[in-house]
Structure prediction request, 641 residues.
Amino acid sequence: MGGLQTLKTQTIEKLLIANRGEIAIRIAQSCHALGISTVAVCSEADQDALHSHYCDESICIGPPAAAESYLKIDALIQAALDTNANAIHPGYGFLSENADFAEAVEKAGLIWVGPPAKAISVMGSKTAARTAAIGADVPVVPGEVDTAKAESVGFPLLIKAVGGGGGRGMRVVREANELQQAIEAASREALSAFGNGDVFVERYIEQGRHIEIQVFGDQHGNVHHLYERECSVQRRHQKVVEEAPSVALDEDLRQKMGEAAIRVAKAVDYVGAGTVEFLLDQDGSFYFLEMNTRLQVEHPVTECITGLDLVALQLDVAQGEAFTDVPERAGASIEVRLYAEDPAEDYAPQTGLIHEFSFDEAEGIRVDTGVASGSEVSIHYDPMIAKIIASGENREIARKRLVRCLNRLCVLGLKTNQHQLIEILSHPDFIQGDIHTRWLEGQEQSAPSISNTTVIAALCGQLKDTRETLPAIAKGWRNSRFRSQLFTAGEIDIHWHPKGNGWSVRTGEQTQELHFEAADNAIVLWLDGRKTEAVLAEDTSHHYVWTGGASVALKKGQRFPDVDLEDDPGACIASTPGKVAKLAVSEGQQVQSGDLLVVLEAMKMEQPLCASIDGVVQSVFVAEGEQVEAGQRLVELGPSE
Prediction:
């Protein structure tokens, strides 16, 4: 393209952050350190969210659904004008890679903290980006823009959304008979997430490593790279663990990939923070995947190894300052993404109230989050609730610090992937750096175990509550002999009775002596003289218990259980709140076990629900586009006649 951008020399006085959650808070932190005032925007669902309180001002821009608020260009610009903000930062996701938004911001006389609209437009289309990379003499993965020619590329294939990222609108296809359904599903998911249902196909490289290069350009024509990040540990093509530097790169390969990234950025006169993503094959070959024209979720690991504040650097560049001083790389950093999801149940997204969110502050640990105790995780937005980052002199120190932090992290009220993250970081393959983009698929996903100690901790919560009401009388006190009382949670029964200054608790054949100390919702248990810490919460249906390393939900035992109540194998039940994206069956239709019944969309991801038995569709209770609640019956199957 050639030529410099028009040099901006305006000063940012007040910045509107056109985003939400942890990234909105992260941007505000850098602004406040620089003396720049901040304005948060929020939907009606986010009026009490953490980012709305963290910024200097907050303005509501619409109803809960993201498509009607954070994606509404006119409302965002009007919010900036109404609050006298003279600049807008888009964060990541939502409109951060929308060229129309960038143009509208500058047309309104506001400073756009991001790359030029033309660069966004080219790199926002993965097909146009491929063309630009080829023109910059950077290799690309073999593929086809026309999905009708998909089979000519050869299997396995990867279907990808033309616009957007984050793993949405992506499907792996291994056989021709899966192709059409996968194209339709990817297109539908991309349309929902990005407003653009166009997809294309690439050859799927089975055991590649995902390496991305952080680039930074200024308005003076300078473009530099700030080293690499490895993001090979992924689920559903979405990153779970990111680290810098990559153990797979030597200095020669690092230099070649860095130079290739700079050529791609210069091909579109890039300004600001961007990331050029590559796939590294086992033979050392690398291929351009895409360029993200925004700040990345994983930018903290680059900050940790360079000492830079990338948000502050974005603000400087947007105001016309030059970026010429690239620091040396030092140490190592690893980031994990804490998701509200259940890995043991095919990563089903989770929603609900966070009763407790806490962690230990320690050397080398950073936590970026948009939630706190009392926050609500809704169906409208991405399931990521925090990023936990560790750094150290080397990779092993960073890894150990991160494992310890995760073991001390407490999240109560909904399931997360915390247990999975600890298992990943502790796995011999990860410790050796022997990973690839499909590595996580081959790992069995186990749920946190429910131990006797966990259930005893829940019992202590009940004992503590009664103690506070009648402090002079021990829970379970009687003036005559009595049988042990029963406490049931999950699938474990605990028999207990007072004994001396504590209690005797029995599970099966095991009997233990229990004492505990309580403060607020925290409990210190002493079981046969061994100390265990726990944090507790509860609602009408569950006890929530953290005992280190993971949190579990224990279903409360029913006082009067319905002995006639049995699971209905023919019922298709919504496992989470969401929208019916596709209804694949109709009443009277014959189905076999494993056939698709309903596609449920939650948190911008699709969840297929399939038949668990052979039979006939007796009833369909929902329609496409309908919003449903967790536990709602969607389809009923009966035996074939």
